[in-house]
Structure formats: structure tokens, C-alpha cells
Input
Amino acid sequence: MKRFLILLGIMLMFIATVSGCATKKAAEAPAVKAEPVNLTIAAAASLQDAGEELKTIYTAKHPDIKITYNFAASGTLQKQIEEGAPVDLFVSAGKSQMDALAQKKLITDTSLKNLLGNELVLIAKKDSTLSSFEGLVDKSVGKISIGTPETVPAGQYAKETLTTMKLWDQIQPKLVMAKDVRQVLTYVETGNVDAGLVYRSDTSGMKDAKIVAAAPAGSSKPIVYPMAVIASSKHPKEAADFEAFLGSDEAMQIFVKYGFTALKK
Output
């Protein structure tokens, strides 16, 4: 009996030791790091410079979030979303594109907000003698680029402005359509066209072009950038958090630095 008790004690001590070691190893084992949440942001091409800086600021504070942008013309992005492209947040340069998605129940209505304003400007090469919108009809101006009005909000605003100024019909033969507003800027800077209409925000990094004139007040509908979380987003909370950041005072300072207009609250 005595020998049995001794053996039992030894066994219990052995079990306790093994269990303790296992518990210690489990405690010391590194925690499995969660995969970052990847947010896909569909954003108007004119937001590229500001968007990249804001991405750096946000991900530094939220290392668990990875942001992937898809910059393109707002009409192109609208079509992609309608066709089921995986997108978490859409920032459009035009109201009509967002309205179309809302009508099809493809956005979360409660998340829809107006983010920014902008201004349309006429640009030309630095050495150009062009001095006004009216000068576009002159023979010295051979080609003028705007975004395709059907898909590029800046192109639609350009058409409205030129129509209001009674220049649209006169310059039609000179028009070169671009896939987005950034392409218009490239055409002007490379000398492929003599002038172009872009957003003021697109001119912040111009090197080989200059602003000739701003579109007259009231010559087009107000330029507003709406944003909304996509209804099919797999990360609606994280998308809403990033949307809130874009609308913050901190983010607005960055937008204004790049030439956008803060909307009155």
C-alpha cells in the first residue's frame, strides 16, 4: 500500500510538471496576427494625389487596414460597380453617377454624403498666348481636350460651361475627348493639344502648363464630390470608418492643399 501511494505521488508530480510546461509554452507562444482588412476604394481620377497622401496618414494610424484605390473616370467606376466589381467605398466627381447607383440600391443610403467641391479651369502650355475662354475660337488654337462628357464629370461640366458661354458649337471640330481628367492634363503638358479643361485640383502638380482662366461662376452646375459605402461591401464598418476620416477636418486640410473646396457644413 505504501509503495502504491509513493508511485501515485510520483505520477501526480510528473503530470503536474508536464501540464505546467505546456501551459508555460502556450503562454509564451506568439499570438497569431490577424490578416489586415483590405478596403477597395473606387475614386474619381482627380482625387489621386490627395487620396494617396490620405492613405498614408490613415494606414499609419490603422495598421490593420490596407487600402487599395481604383482611380478612374466616375462613369467608368459606376459601370464597374453596377457589374459587380468588389468595391467598399465610392467617391465620385459627379452627382449623377452616385444617383444612378442609389436608384439601383447599390449604395448604403445612410452613408451618402457630399465630401468636396471643386472648380473648372482652362489650362494651356506655359508658353501659350491663350488668355481667355473666348480665345479658344481663334485659329491659333488647333486642339482642345475635355473629358468625355458621357463618362467623365469634368467633361460634362466643361460642356455645360462652353455651352453657357456660347462656345460649344464653334469649337466642336477642335475637341479631343479624354478617358478622364488626368488624361486631359497629360495631353496639354505634352503638347498634344493646345488647351484643356480640368479641375483646379488637377493643377497642383502641373509643371509644363498654366491656368489661363477659371470657369465663370454659374456657367455649370456646382461641382460636388459625393461618397457612399457600397451595399455589397464585405467590410461595411471599416469602410464607414474610412469614410468618416475622409470627411474629418484633418483630411479636409489635405484636400484643400490640393486645390479642392471644403463644403459649408
About this structure: The chain has a mean pLDDT of 90. The longest helix spans residues 2-28. The two ends are 87 Å apart (CA to CA).
